[in-house]
Structure formats: structure tokens, C-alpha cells
Design goal:
The protein folds into 2 domains: 67 residues, Orthogonal Bundle (Arc Repressor Mutant, subunit A); 198 residues, D-Maltodextrin-Binding Protein, domain 2, CATH 3.40.190. Helix 1 packs across helix 2, helix 1 packs across helix 3 and helix 6 packs across helix 10. Strands 3, 4, 5, 6, 7, 10, 11 and 12 form an 8-stranded mixed sheet that branches. Strands 1-2 form a two-stranded antiparallel ribbon. It has a two-stranded parallel sheet with strand order 8-9. It is built from 10 helices and 12 strands.
Length: 298
């Protein structure tokens, strides 16, 4: 036989009541089976735990030692059960979120992270910026639990993706550029301009979208300075080294020396998705995805 929680509870009831009948009533069973449970416990322990006397039932030295060891067990088990239930609901634990540089500027991403932290303050949330290939690989190897990236990149077909937003891309020009006085410009008028872009390996989807848009406008973009991050693209435009196309959410960057201009006609589109491993079942991830959904479909 093995000591079970019921034996501990019966023992604690008798240690407190010092009377078999009262302890049995408190435990919700009849006195004879209660007494058998106490005898079974003593046999399993290998020592007398109670001394029976006409004026009551008292703990022996062995019983006192057993009491010191088990008196907190029911409370510990209840706390463990509550902790397990909270973990099952995703209220505790950790969540590793990766994101592309441009995703950090999207209001859906910021709102999701803010809402998740407010709703689940005891989840250890870690954030890390990385390029698209690293984000995809990170989800696969377990470095990230969930990532924000541009859908359609090589390898992303192995992931479960949910499209969050599709936003137009806009031109970013030096503030002293002749076209800066126009609120809307045609992409074709930038055909002689050097384009400041992310390397294809760092931002393959945005890179391909920009090239496709320029080709549709009748020209091949002239490649100028490469920038390691989307923020660097805008800063380099401010130096006058060239122009670029960026997701519309980048308008929030208040960098002196640049202007954002809407493109006339059909603009290239920057899509943003939240991605995770197929079959992912962690409650923290499910809760995070639910927060994403709330931001796009309140």
C-alpha cells in the first residue's frame, strides 16, 4: 500500500479533533471505515501514531514527527493544483516573441504586446528583433514561440501563419527633394533615383515587393546604399543618398530631413503575419494569438 492524500487528511483531522467520531464526521465518512484508514496509515508508516485513552486520542512521539512532516501537505497540493490550472490557462510561464524591424512600427504589433502584458502580467515575455530568415528558423528550432514577419518568405510554408494587416507602401524622400512638395507621386518618376533598400537576405519580401512594383512602373530600380535595418533605410534617406519605399506604418518615424509621400495608382503592399509552429499547443501562445485577433477584429 501507498500513503495517499486521504490518509494524510484523516490523520490531520484526528490530530486536531482528538476524537475518532468527531474526526470521522469532519471527514465525511463513518467512524468504522475512518478507524480502518488510520490503522492502515499506521501500518504503512510502521509506527503507532495515536495513543488511545478514555479521555481522548493523542499523538505519540512518532505521530508528532509525522505531523511536523505532513501538516502543510494539503495546502501545498492545493497550491500546486492552482499553479497547474494557471499554467494550463497560460497565465504563467514564458513567451519568446520575434519580430522584423519593420513590424515593430506596426500599431497592431505594439497593441498586441501591450494588451498581452496587461492581461498576463506573470508571463515572462521576451522580445527580439531579427531578420526574416532567422525568425523562420527560430520558430522551427524553438528559439521563438511566435514571430511577426512578412508572409511568403522561403521556409515560411512550414509554419502556421495568420495574416494581420495589409498596408500600402509609401515613398520616403529627402525633405529637399524636388518631388517633396507633391503630396502624391507616381512611382515611375523615381526611375532615375538610387534606391536605399534592405539586403534581400534581411528583408526578402519587402525587397521583392519593391522590385516588382518598380518593374510594373516600367523601370528597374537603381540600387544605391544597402541598409541593415528598416530604420537605417530612413536615416540614410535623410542624408540625401537616395529614396526608398517603406510600409505606411513607418510614417510614425519623426526623422528630420525626410518626407513620406503617397504613391499614385496601385501601390505595392506590405503584408504582416503572425507565425508559429504547426500544431503548437502552448496556452501562452494561444493567448498571444487571441490578443492578435482582438486587435484586428475587436
Amino acid at each position: 500500500m501507498m500513503i495517499e492524500l486521504r490518509h494524510v487528511n484523516y490523520f490531520l483531522a484526528l490530530a486536531e479533533e482528538k476524537h475518532f467520531t468527531r474526526a470521522a464526521e469532519r471527514s465525511g465518512i463513518q467512524q468504522p471505515p475512518f478507524s480502518r484508514q488510520i490503522r492502515d496509515l499506521e501500518e504503512m508508516v510502521g509506527a503507532r501514531l495515536f495513543s488511545r485513552a478514555p479521555n481522548g486520542t493523542f499523538l505519540t512521539e512518532a505521530g508528532l514527527a509525522f505531523l511536523a512532516a505532513v501538516q502543510n501537505v494539503p495546502g501545498q497540493i492545493q497550491r500546486a493544483a492552482r499553479d497547474a490550472q494557471r499554467a494550463a490557462r497560460g497565465e504563467v510561464g514564458s513567451l519568446r516573441v520575434g519580430y522584423t524591424g519593420s513590424a515593430a512600427f506596426n500599431p497592431v504589433v505594439a497593441a498586441t504586446i501591450r494588451s498581452f502584458r496587461r492581461t498576463y502580467p506573470e508571463v515572462d515575455l521576451s522580445l527580439e528583433e531579427a531578420n526574416t530568415p532567422r525568425l523562420i528558423e527560430g520558430v522551427k528550432d524553438g528559439s521563438y514561440d511566435v514571430v511577426f514577419l512578412r508572409p511568403g518568405a522561403s521556409g515560411s510554408a512550414d509554419l502556421q501563419e495568420r495574416l494581420l494587416v495589409s498596408e500600402a507602401m509609401v515613398a520616403v524622400l529627402p525633405a529637399d527633394h524636388p518631388l517633396s512638395k507633391s503630396e502624391t507621386i507616381k512611382l515611375a518618376v523615381l526611375k532615375e533615383e538610387p534606391f536605399i533598400l534592405l539586403p534581400p537576405a534581411a528583408g526578402p519580401i519587402l525587397h521583392d515587393e519593391i522590385y516588382a512594383a518598380c518593374r510594373s512602373a516600367g523601370f528597374e530600380p537603381s540600387l544605391g546604399q544597402m541598409a541593415p535595418q528598416i530604420g537605417s533605410v530612413i536615416n540614410l534617406v535623410a542624408t540625401g543618398l537616395g529614396v526608398s519605399l517603406v510600409p505606411e506604418c513607418m510614417r510614425c518615424m519623426q526623422v528630420p530631413g525626410i518626407v513620406f509621400r503617397t504613391l499614385a495608382g496601385k501601390s505595392p503592399i506590405a503584408r504582416l503575419a503572425v507565425s508559429l509552429r504547426r500544431g503548437e499547443s502552448a496556452a501562452t501562445v494561444r493567448n498571444f494569438i487571441q490578443e492578435c485577433k482582438r486587435q484586428i477584429d475587436p
